[in-house]
Predict the 3D structure of the following.
Amino acid sequence: MTRHSPFCSSSINRRGFLRTGAFALGGLSLADVLQARATAGRERTDTAVILLYLHGGPSHLETYDLKPNAPIEYRSVFDPIRTNVPGIDVCEHLPMHARIADKFALIRSVRHTMTSHTDGGIEVLTGKTPTRPDPTSTSSSEHPDIGSHTSRARGYGPDIMPPYVAIPSRLYMITPTYLGAHCGPLNAGDPSQPNYRLNSANLPVGVDLQRLDDRRALRNRFDSLRRNLDINGQFEGTDQFRSIALQMVTSRQVSEAFDIQRESPTLRDRYGRDIWGQGCLLARRLAEAGTAVISLMINTPQVGPEFTNWDDHILNAMRPGHFGSYMSVRLPYYDRALSALIEDIYMRGLDRKIMVVAMGEFGRTPRLSSNASGTGRDHWPDAMSVLVSGGGLRMGQVIGATNSRGEYPTQRMLSPKDVLATMYQHLGIDPRHAWLDHTGRPQAILTDGAPIAELG
């Protein structure tokens, strides 16, 4: 749900400033903000990852791994179309993908073993298998995800750009756990909303920190805010926290990065004015401005059942009938937004700086399921497809393959850890590095997995 900002102009009243502090705390807090600043003092890798997290698990057979020659109870319900790279086919509802296949790579052989949404999400986002699988999909991660690890490792730069931003909000199953709340994402809200710059995650433009009125009152209010939120000693160093928060809420660069209205109407139309398109456009702006990891999880049931997520099976009461009818509505939005993002990144010469990854928590069952309520595909972690673009990697290729029915990898079987290792490599982070958890034990970012050599 979109959270509206208190800012209605470039001026800051006391009430609005207090709310801004609370907003900043959602992704800032401080015990380690100083440590993050110290980290930023070291040489920083100026790279970014934009992760389109396709919550619900998109069917690989209806997107990137169609099996037109399989038996009818297995084959895709859609037809494949050729792309501008010979030998690479994609779904007929992805025609804009087809025109830019030379700018992405498809990995068709990723698999793991977690069958519920939360556990699958934890597996692909953290690289750690849950110790106690939860079939109800209500648990939270025991380990941080790639955004939180990156936030801890790279910290805030001298321009105070947040290192980790979630559009419109954080990935629900992930917490920063032992890294601390400050390593969680800043929730950006829905950039497709009218006047997003004023009503969502925007910060005021061009306020001179040295000219803020009534600084003593502002200081007192920040101290009060800190005391109210200082649970379990989570916030330390009030003076340093105040400095970081003030700088962030008065940063012109941060404000401009979130100001999506600075883009031309033509480009905004190319991305699409919906949350898919404007989310991808905001992600590009943030990555260009210095944010290291931007996640997008588009889950908008208020728009319609076809947009709720990618959970297209017959047991979903929200989508009775044939799952293909919902995918045929959803896929064009995804096609337009992702293809616009990839084209925009390459056109601006950002394809070495920014790596785009599109993946869900698993694939879908190769064999179609049907009953009186409809037809669909159920959860299937044994085979899933992942799209990668940019990052200075080798594009225009397919890595790995599944068998003739799309059931299991038969060539170059990979795990989510390998995908994450590739992302960490791009971000300049050693995935073997270990942080201390709450008990003082070292926890490696990844315990195994290696960058995918074919992409290098």
In short: Residues 323-347 form the longest helix (25 residues).
